[in-house]
Amino acid sequence: MSLERYRQFLERVESSPGYWHEVAVAELTQDLCRLMEEKQVSRAELARRMGTSRAYITKLLGGNANFTLATMVKLAMAFDGALHVHIADQRAVTRWQDELPGEPPESRKPRRGRKSSSG
Fold it and tell me: What is the pTM of this model?
């Protein structure tokens, strides 16, 4: 495949809602796995906190479930968190920085979001 045909292919893929859905699912599951590791929460414990089965948590973490906003809110609340939704330019690199009252700015590290391959 020529480089130009590859670029055209990428542009078609990146213009698909299905592509961006999969990106969002991947980012959410990565964030969940990070939180589970940081807070030492097992799948069984997360299931208990959400009032669901361990099998459902495994399905969620495998990216094989349809994440509704309600499910994402329940997941956030299971970690004493809140869900924040953000719409940005597809070419943008998003940096999340959570600020807690009374926490000095130098102790915070921003997390990076996904960067589009077209930018």
Answer: 0.73
